[in-house]
Amino acid sequence: MGNDLKNNYDDLTVYYANELARKYCKFTLEEQKVLHLIFSQINPYGKNPITFKLNKLDFFNKLELESKNRYPRYRKLVHSLINKSLFEITDEKGGVRIGVVIFDSYWKPKEAYFEISLNPNFMPYLEQLVREYTKLQLDSILKLKSKHSLTLYKFLCSWTDENKKINQRYITTKDLKELLGLSIDDYVYKGKFNRADFERKTINLSLSEINEKTDLIIKLIKNYKNGKVQNYEFTWTQKDKTNNSRQYWW
């Protein structure tokens, strides 16, 4: 069974609901990667199980978990994912559902896989979300080492129009800080915003990593008005790639 499950995550494409991609995620970088591994297996157009099997060896390799502490790390990740996956949704009839999306995990020491179960009450919602999707390369997601890089990458992908050679988006400083999960006081020293520090530690590092490790090439222009930065202009293109990847959705 171990051989059947090995390398489950190579060359996958994840379809991620646009509204989720455009919101700051409360999960850590490592937790987001686990979520992508889980939800990459959801197909919105077919019948899905509520329990998915994750190959242990491939899981550890993809998340670069060392052998000496990988099981305790996995246990800690599952605890955190369950605690953070509490969501509240309102349906079209005004009904409210509150619950955790990640239901539980089960494994045995000698088996080749972990089992992750999703709340069946949320499965129709997850399947419906991906009708408006963002196409993401799972390999690109797993290569990123910065949470800011992953957040910006997902956001820009959510605005990608594949019919256009070059895509473009304007983001104000306020909106960009909010997107990256920063407070209004971050990079403010003695009442003054240090833009150079903000750009160096967040934007520039993110763009460098995204350009190196993902399917996007991004360029940045600062637009000024009355001598002040009005917004950041992001333009991006997709690198040439063969369209032979297996396709999965989130």
The biggest sheet amounts to: 3 strands, mixed
Strand order of the largest sheet: 7-1-13
Measured as a percent range, the helix fraction is: 25-40%
Structural class: alpha+beta
Summarize the entry for a quick read.
The protein is an alpha+beta fold and 250 residues long.
Key structural traits:
250 residues, three-stranded antiparallel beta sheet, 28% strand, disordered N terminus, alpha+beta, single chain
What does this structure look like?
This protein is α+β, with helices and mostly antiparallel strands and 250 residues long. The chain contains ten helices and 13 strands. It has helices spanning 2-5, 18-21, 29-39, 56-62, 70-84, 123-129, 138-143, 147-158, 173-179, 195-213, and strands at 12-17, 51-55, 86-90, 96-100, 102-106, 113-118, 133-137, 167-171, 188-189, 192-193, 216-225, 228-238, 246-247. Strands 7-1-13 form a three-stranded mixed beta sheet. The chain has a three-stranded antiparallel beta sheet with strand order 2-6-5. Strands 8-12-11 form a three-stranded antiparallel beta sheet. Strand 5 and strand 6 (113-118) form a beta hairpin. Helix 8 packs across helix 10 (195-213). The longest helix is centred in the C-terminal third of the chain and has 19 residues, at 195-213. The chain is globular, with a radius of gyration of 19 Å. It starts with a helix and ends with a strand.
